[in-house]
Amino acid sequence: MCRSFAAFAALVAALPCVLGTQKGAIKLDSWTYEKFLSLPGQKVLVKFDKAYAYGDTEDAFKSLCEKVSKHSSFFVAEVPIAEYGDKENDDLRERYSLKKDDYPVYKLVTTGPNFDEKAVNYTGDKTARDLVRFLRTNGIRITGVGGLKEYDELAEKFITKTSEADRKAVLDAAQTKAGGEEDTDVKNKAEMYVKTMKKIVEKGLDYVNTETERVAKVLGGKMSDDKKKQMEVKLDVLSSFEGVKVHEEL
């Protein structure tokens, strides 16, 4: 893993032309795409979009790049596709039968030989919040838009513990920490983490999936802006308990 990561880093450093249009993204083209993604052992979120993209979806991509910038073993890349002139990278559009009305299109790639076979296509809303949730549920450990980093770490510890006593110890630590929070917004979010842990103890890990589905359904209906914000944060918190390798379910 270390050797493959070093090869990845060396390739990025050696090719200044791979700097993306967004800070933090690696620009790939017809010549570098296969070469870059064939190096084994990394996770890369690839965005296919029109050249010189702009608007809300590009703002979301910019926010995502900033969000994942400190992740040491995860990369964001983009493939700008030109519609006119030399039609730069149009062969990659044809390779995946992409339609411009669907831009931006995202794929989560596990790099290595035959990387296309393991790629996960993203089909959700193209907001920074939903993209982060997608990454989290696929094992990329970054804090959700409405989440709290320290409580994310407690959530991961809680899920990966293999005994009831160990999980209770993490729950107690989270509850104590939440009780000491002075900021109202932080305290409310922290209590969501604690409540989720308690529900998992009571109902098992299936609670995360069923509650995620329920909240997503609620968000599809009409509600006040405050209620919508609360439900979105709850989804962010729930995603902290997904995508974590569990050695033994209690």
From TrEMBL:
Identification of the protein by name: Endoplasmic reticulum resident protein 29 C-terminal domain-containing protein
GO biological process: protein secretion
GO CC annotations on file: endoplasmic reticulum lumen
Record PANTHER family: ENDOPLASMIC RETICULUM PROTEIN ERP29 (PTHR12211), ENDOPLASMIC RETICULUM RESIDENT PROTEIN 29 (PTHR12211:SF0)
Keywords: Endoplasmic reticulum, Signal
Pfam families, alphabetized: ERp29, ERp29_N
Cited InterPro entries: ERp29, ERp29_C, ERp29_C_sf, ERp29_N, Thioredoxin-like_sf
Limits of the ERp29 N-terminal domain: 21-139
Residue ranges annotated for the Endoplasmic reticulum resident protein 29 C-terminal domain, each copy included: 147-241
Signal peptide: 1-20
SUPFAM superfamilies: ERP29 C domain-like, Thioredoxin-like
Keyword Signal appears in the UniProt entry: yes
CDD domains: ERp29c
